[in-house]
Amino acid sequence: MTNNTPNNPLFQITGLSHSFGGLKAVSHFDLTLEPGQIWGLIGPNGAGKTTVFNLITGVYKPDEGSIDLNGNDLTSLPSHAIIARGVSRTFQNIRLFKSMTVLDNVRTAGYCRQNYSLWSALARTTRFTEQEERLRQSAIEVLKTFGLVSRIHELAMGLPYGLQRTIELARALVSRPRVLLLDEPGAGMNPAEIDKLAATILWVRDTFGVAIVLIEHRMRLVMNLCEQVKVLNFGETIFQGKPGDLSKNETVVKAYFGEDHDPAGN
Amino acid sequence: MDRKYIGPLLFAAGMASTLCCDFLHALDPYVAQIIMYIGINIIMTASLNLVNGYMGEFSVGHAAFMAVGAYVASFFSVSILPHGPWSAVFFPLCLLAGGAAAALVGFLIAVPAFKARDDYLAIITLALIMITKSVFENLPWFGGPQGYSGIQKYTNLSWVFVCATATVVVVRNLVNSNFGRGIIAVRDDEVAANLVSVNTKYVKVLAFVVSAFFAGVGGGLFAHLIQFINPRTFSIIKSTDFLLMLYLGGSGTLAGPILGAAIWTILLELLRFLGIWRFVVAPVALIILMIYRPLGIMGGKEIKWFRPHPPFPSPPGEGERIKQ
Questions:
Q1: Domain for residue B228, yes or no?
Q2: Residue B296 has what pLDDT?
Q3: For residue A258, is pLDDT > 70?
Q4: In the predicted model, is pLDDT for residue A260 greater than 80?
Q5: Residue of B189, B194, B315 lying closest to A140 (CB–CB)
Q6: CB-based contact (8 Å) between A141 and chain B?
Q7: Which of B173, B191, B206 sits opposite A59 (nearest CB)?
């Protein structure tokens, strides 16, 4: 299904720009992603990292530039259609549906995979029952792989912070994405949890066959996971390359780590 | 007994008893009247629940949809459909016409209304009430401010029962589907809903239109019960009644609107001996309830019968944590 030739990458962003009033939040952002790749997107606070995610997922409409997934132009689509085409994301601050159980949170993300009509739903036709059952099974399947299956009937917001992050990840995977955007998945975690998270992310990539873009402040995670890193500062891309070369780059060191930096991260 | 037969059996029993009451006049007319009011209030409250409960918006325009339904259904039964001994068989058509007209108005208002949220939606729907009121006061065909009379009493217990059941079943089936999860997701976090592929615009308009449709049907039943309607009947006070019943019973549940509508209607009847003071006593009772049970009688819980059907069994491997 994936169209993986050098001239035809899985996911390609070219010249993406956006301003809020006079402030250039993102300018000329490019990204090319092959299946299974993990890219890191780092930069100081306010650098425009989350804005990039918001532009990709249609929360904001880009002023310029194009976003292309496997030959489909996503630039002018509304958010829900972009997600349905195969881009999923998690959020910097956990945004689970607070009145729903774990299972319903995950099932809600299967919206784009259901195509029964309103009448089907109201009359409870076999089409409805079959699709609902299939969605439920695949939601449980995903939750099972994360070890959450015993808690599927609990309210998602009642679970510990770490599990909530996992549920968000599970929710993002139910729509069968090909590109997964993770917005600070390691926020609020201790180093041991970070290592576990790194293993989970690698495992998600291999199991679900997704390409991943990762926004992260925790260098430990970036160093462990990312093949390539992009550094943003004031909306401009100031570095692109291997994470190992980050600390050798003067501009990055100045912009990101400050004056007395610690390349090891923590 | 298999749980899936309980619903149809209950429906058959209800249908049989309402038909008995209607055709054998087995019930005191006053009691029958109260039961029909309860049924209509259930229709209104359960449909309002879709927008104000499940979707978490605050619409105060339900009386306007009721008015549209009442006027259009009455217009159909009085002026369009044939009169005669069998004219009552056309009554469902009148109700559907009323519902469809209300749904259309719902659609027209939903598109601009959902560009606004919270307080602003309340203001827009408030404006809708005023607009419908003055439209019906000024249109030549409906008797203007004097009101619309000559409506036959077609509403009986059976029709009220059928419509109320249909409303509750439709709301239940809608809520326990993809669309319903989308509607609830909009309530919890609209942006996140959109970003997990829910077509939020669609589900919002859908909830509003379905809600308006049943309000229109309720209006049609109401008009053919009291046989005389005028524009002042459908003021903001009427909307407030339904809001009150909804929050009394507990919004965002299926049982809440049913309980709320029944309790409030009966309470107002029981307090009739207080005369005008019942409109003081009843709200005070409500305030007390809100203090001790702020989420309404149901308190956000659902009674067993209204949970998704078929009941979902526990998943295989329940209880064991799978290692990754």
A1: yes
A2: 81
A3: no
A4: no
A5: B315
A6: no
A7: B191
Q: What percent of chain B has pLDDT over 70?
A: 92
Q: Which residues of B touch A80 (CB under 8 A)?
A: 194-195, 197-200
Please list every residue in chain A whose beta carbon sits closer than 8 Å to the beta carbon of residue B185.
97, 100, 108
Asked if the Cβ–Cβ distance from A172 to B196 is below 8 Å, we say: yes
Residue B172: list chain A partners with CB under 8 A: none
Q: Chain B residues with CB inside 8 Å of A79's CB? A: 194-195
Bridge pairing between strands A38-42 and A211-215: parallel
CA dihedral A57, A60, A63, A68 (to 10 degrees): 10
> Looking at the complex, does the CB of residue A159 fall below 8 Å from at least one CB of chain B?
no
- Report pLDDT for A38: 95
**ipTM confidence score:** 0.88
Task: Dig out the tokens for B261 from the structure.
Answer: 């509508």
pLDDT tens sequence across A169-198: 999 999 999 999 999 998 888 888 888 899
Is B77 inside any structural domain?
Answer: yes
Token reading at B281: 């006593």
Q: Which residue of A has its CA nearest to B206?
A: A118
Mean pLDDT of chain B: 87
For B189, the closest of A95, A116, A203 (CB atoms) is: A95
Tell me the two tokens of residue B104: 């259309």
Token output for A107: 């099932």
Per the structure, the count of domains in chain B is: 1
Question: What 3-state DSSP class applies to A35?
Answer: coil
B212 is a domain residue: yes
Q: Is residue B298 part of a domain?
A: no
Q: Which residue range forms the structural domain that includes residue B29? A: 3-234
pLDDT for B150-171, tens place per residue? 888 999 999 999 999 999 999 9
Long-range contacts of B84-91 (CB under 8 A, 24+ apart): B87/B152, B88/B152, B88/B154, B91/B154, B91/B155, B91/B159, B91/B224
Which residue is closest to A98 within chain B, CA to CA?
A: B188
Q: How far is B216 from chain A (nearest CA, A)?
A: 19
Assess A175–B contact: CB distance below 8 Å, yes or no: yes
Burial of A266 (0-12, 13-18, 19+ CB in 10 A): exposed
Question: What pLDDT digit, counting tens, does each position of A226-240 carry?
Answer: 999 999 998 899 889
Q: Which fold has domain A1-86+177-266?
A: Rossmann fold (3.40.50)
Contact: A95, B197; criterion CB under 8 Å: no
In chain B, what residues touch A99 (CB-CB under 8 Å)? Answer: 184, 187-188, 252, 300
pLDDT in tens, A78-109: 999 999 999 999 998 899 999 899 999 999 99
Q: What are phi and psi of B12, to 5 degrees?
A: -60, -40
pLDDT exceeds cutoff 70 at A132: yes
Residues of chain B positioned with their CB less than 8 A from the CB of A88: 196
